[in-house]
Amino acid sequence: MSHFLEFCRAREAWLIEAIERLACSESPSFDKAAVDRCGHELVGCLTELGARVETVARSTVGDIVVADFGGGPRQLLLLGHCDTVWPVGTLAEMPVTRRDGRLFGPGVFDMKAGLAIAMLAACATAQRGLVEQTRLRLLITTDEEIGSGASRSLIEREARASLAVLVFEPSLSGGALKTRRKGVGEFVIDVQGVAAHAGVDPGAGVSAVSELAHQVIAAQRLADPARGTTLNVGIIEGGSRVNVVAEHARAVVDVRVTTAAEAERMSRALAGLTPTLAGARVTVRGGFNRPPMERGPHIAALVATASEAASELGLTLTEGSTGGASDGNFTAALGIPTLDGLGALGGGAHARHEHVVLDALVPRAALAAGLIARVVRA
Ligand SMILES: [Zn+2]
């Protein structure tokens, strides 16, 4: 048996209890006090494992947790987030429960189990004396589910100082790694019309609602599903009263792309939308808040390394793509070798049946430890 498997197997109870402890501390992104309580639990877990832990203060979201194992001139970054999409009180209807070989609860899959796996894997490699030349730095952010506005610059700075970035977001089905992620853009199409009485003087008005209808169709035509570029007009609103020609209307649009070139094309095309009705004004704001993760050679090399670590454990590693973005999008777009989806096996992220597979936790931690060992020895 691999020494990492043995090490992690001996700490299986700690691993599962750490996930339960983190999941029992609810941490919705917008509730700083709650997220900071979860951060306190994280500091406790990391200290138990021998890490040096610091927190980086944030005023509107939870404080970021930074923990180091080992030292030396080089750094390997292990990245995750402790915020979830579940409001405080969810535990009353969705308690943390072990059932049928699974652990259920809010945030267990996305991504509290991933955090516990990363912590144990880092500890396992530190115990083997592999971190004298390379510091393992865990960076645990608190606003990933709301776009990472308060952590992006820190993530990018730490990534630039690292050999590679391992992201412990949940795996795809069967434990597959995430080697391609779409980039995400959010745009607002604002339309300014001219108000008028709908009965007395309709000809004097320019309907912002009618103009917006044209813009919605025009925007949807920009999508190119064959290239993976999709566009969803998720929100429209406008008008004031039924008997008034609408003066204002707006649409909020979600755009997903697989390449930087498509992000550029969509940004330009949306910015170039022009009014159809004489007298209407169209303004487009917004942009891409996460660039796409493209599977370049920097990602392929890490996949090969992870596959070696997996075969040592008798596992076969697969990979796939997802339309969802993560903080790994930022680091991959910088050209830093990045591997995402190293977290738990399970299902139901952001859904009522969110769970992780208990039996897979130890092999996953051993896999991460084997991968870390290979990266730091290289
Ligand atoms: Zn996540």
What does this structure look like?
The protein is an alpha+beta fold. The chain folds into two domains: 3-181 and 293-377, 3-Layer(aba) Sandwich (Aminopeptidase); 183-290, Alpha-Beta Plaits (2-Layer Sandwich), CATH 3.30.70. Helix content is 34%, strand content 25%. The protein has helices spanning 3-9, 12-23, 32-48, 108-127, 152-160, 208-221, 260-271, 297-312, 328-333, 361-377, and strands at residues 52-56, 64-69, 74-81, 97-99, 102-104, 134-141, 165-167, 177-181, 183-192, 196-197, 230-238, 244-245, 248-257, 281-290, 319-322, 338-339, 346-347, 355-357. It has a six-stranded mixed sheet with strand order 1-2-6-3-7-16, with helices on both faces. A four-stranded antiparallel sheet has the order 4-5-18-17, covered by helices on one side. A hairpin with a 2-residue loop joins strand 4 (97-99) and strand 5. The longest helix has 20 residues, at 108-127. Bound molecules: zinc ion.
